[in-house]
Amino acid sequence: MTAATPLPTLRTLPLAARAYVTAVVIAGAACFSVALAYLRLPHPWLFVVLLGLAMATSAAKIDLPLGRSQSNLSLSHAVNFWALFALGPAPTVCIATVSAWAQCTLRVHLKGRNPLYRVVFSIASLTVTVACAAVPVSLVLADGTAASLLRAAAVAAPLYFFVNSTLVAGAIALSTRQPVIAIWHRNFLWSAPSYLAGAALAASATTASERGWFG
Q1: Model-level pTM?
Q2: How far is the CA of 104 from the CAs of 4, 195, 203, in angstroms?
Q3: Would you put residue 130 in left (φ > 0), alpha (ψ -120 to 50) or beta?
Q4: What Rg do the C-alpha atoms of the chain give, in angstroms?
Q5: What is the pLDDT of residues 59-110, one digit of tens each?
C-alpha cells in the first residue's frame, strides 16, 4: 500500500499566487463581516429555505442544450440570484458563503479532499462575487415588478460571471504561471450561458414567490 500523497499547502504556491489568494481571502472575510453586521431577516422562512436549497444544490448541475457548445446551469448560482433578488445583499452574502463551504467540504470523498487554502479561497471568492453583484442590483431593483427583476437579472448575471470567473482564473494563472486571459477563455467563457439562465430562472422564481404561487 502506497502512502497517501500529502495535500498541497499555501506555501507550495508561487509568491505571487500566495499574495493573491491571501488578498482575496481578506476581501471575502471583510465582505462577510459587513454582511453579518447588516443582516436583517424580515422573511426568515425564505432565508432558511434558500439557505437549504443553496447547500443542497451546491454540486448539482443541469445540462443546457446549446448545440455544439458544452454548458450547464449551476443550481446554486440560481439560488444565489434568487436570494439576491428576494432578500437583498446581506442575507445573500451569508447564503453564498455557506453554500460555497458546502460545495467544497460535503461529499468530497467522491473526488478527494481539497487543500485548506483552496477551500478558503473558493469560499472567499464567491463571497466577494455576490457582494460585487449586489451593488448594482440594489440600485436597479427599485421595486418588485417583473420588468425591474429582468433588469436586475440582466445586470447581475454578467457581473457575477465576470467577477467569479476572473477571480478563479487569476488564482489558476498565478499558480501555474500561465496567461490569465488564456486560462479564462479556455476554462470559463463557455459557462457564461449558465449564469444568464440562472438569473432568469431566479427572476421568475422571485416573481412567483411574491405572488404567492408557492403557497
Answers
A1: 0.86
A2: 20, 20, 27
A3: alpha
A4: 18
A5: 665 544 433 334 444 678 899 999 999 999 999 999 999 999 988 887 655 4
